[in-house]
Design goal:
The protein is of the alpha+beta class. 20% of the residues lie in helices and 46% in strands. The protein has a five-stranded mixed sheet, with no helix packed on it. A four-stranded mixed sheet has the order 2-1-4-7, with no helix packed on it. It is elongated, with a radius of gyration of 22 Å. It starts with a helix and ends with a strand.
Length: 123
């Protein structure tokens, strides 16, 4: 093998290592990086989600778990799945169901029509 071929091979190896490092660094190194770990709590103050719209990412067939803690009485609606539950003022309500439908779904405060979370179910 000539000297130029060795340098070319070395350069190619460096490129492969750099690309692998970038991929691992951006994906977190796991194949389930989109799955939310543990139950999600959505705090609602003045009819708005504290910290912005929460993201809940699960895979189809996995359980969906989240709790809404609200300072005012509200009806919580999970679109697509068409689940409705009431939360009392200063209270909490929990949702737990299997992710049977893949897609993106809005979770909102029904009467003011305010989105508090986005449920993403991947196939």
């Amino acid at each position: 093998m000539s000297r130029n071929q060795r340098f070319a091979l070395l350069g190619l190896a460096v490129v492969v290592v750099v690309v692998a490092a970038v991929i691992i660094g951006t994906s977190g190194g796991s194949d389930n990086s989109t799955t939310t770990s543990g139950p999600v709590t959505i705090d609602v103050k003045d009819q708005k989600p504290v910290g912005g719209i929460q993201k809940i990412d699960v895979k189809k067939g996995d359980p969906v778990h989240f709790t809404v803690d609200s300072d005012s009485a509200q009806e919580i609606h999970v679109h697509g799945y068409d689940f409705h539950k009431d939360v009392p003022a200063g209270g909490k309500v929990s949702f737990s169901f299997p992710a049977k439908i893949d897609g993106s779904f809005v979770i909102e405060l029904e009467d003011p029509g305010v989105q508090i979370a986005a449920l993403n179910v991947s196939p």
